[in-house]
Amino acid sequence: MSLDSTLHRKKIKIHHIFTSPKHNYFTREKFVVGDAPTLEHESVLLVQGRGLEGDRFELSKYPITLFSLEVAEEVSRSLALEVDVKIFRRNIILSGVHLNSLIGKRFKIGEVEFEGMAHCSPCTWMNAVMKKGAYALMRGRGGLRVRVVQGAELTLGECLLVSEEEIKEDPLTPLKRANIPNF
Q1: Predicted structure pTM score
Q2: Can you list the domains of the chain with their CATH numbers?
Q3: How far apart are CA 148 and CA 119, in angstroms?
Q4: Which one of 44, 81, 118, 144 counts the least CB within 10 Å of its CB?
């Protein structure tokens, strides 16, 4: 992606960067929560074609998941719970952008170029680890699975998201239908 004047720039904020070496929900016996730690980082060096070093999805088809802080806050508020973004088990928690608008698109966050691969559907584990109703509140807003096209360091704080299309959708708007990218 070349940075020319036809690209759109949007201020966003990266609030948290997480990794976990093992699964706590996925692949486990029904509703038996694992005890793998969720590690927080101030910055990470991302490499093309890989996820976050040491994360359970580092070498998978969908190596990194972005998640909206606005969605985490709304789900928690709706369930009368304190916000605990670690419980969602997503890698990068950010605010200021509608993530589903990036499915099938290439974009940059800071100096890292990503490709939005797919919506990350929530699982019913959310009802078990949060409260009944969490899964329904997250449907269509479970996050964005991405891959790294061009690596660089990603750091907490405010930065620019650069994309070829302007993103106007509210971050809380759920995905209404499957958005299958044309790769």
Answers
A1: 0.88
A2: 8-31+38-163 (2.40.33.20)
A3: 16
A4: 81
CA distance linking residue 59 with residue 107, whole number of Å: 21
CB of 41 within 8 A of CB of 91?
Answer: no
Do 24 and 11 meet the contact criterion of CB atoms below 8 Å apart?
A: no
For 168, the token pair is: 């106007």
Which structure tokens are listed for 151? 């690596």
Q: What residue type is assigned to position 75 of the chain?
A: V
Q: Is 114 helix (H, G, I), strand (E, B) or coil?
A: strand
Nearest to 91 by CA among 116, 58, 49: 58
Mean predicted lDDT score pLDDT of the chain:
88
Nearest in space to 79 (alpha carbons), one of 13, 134, 157, 11: 134
- DSSP symbols for 2-59: ---TTSEEEEEEEEEEEE-SS-SSTTSSTT-------EEESEEE--TT--STT-TTTT
Identify the DSSP state of 104: T
**Containing H/E element for 120?**
none
What are the tens digits of pLDDT across the range 91-112?
A: 999 999 999 999 999 999 999 9
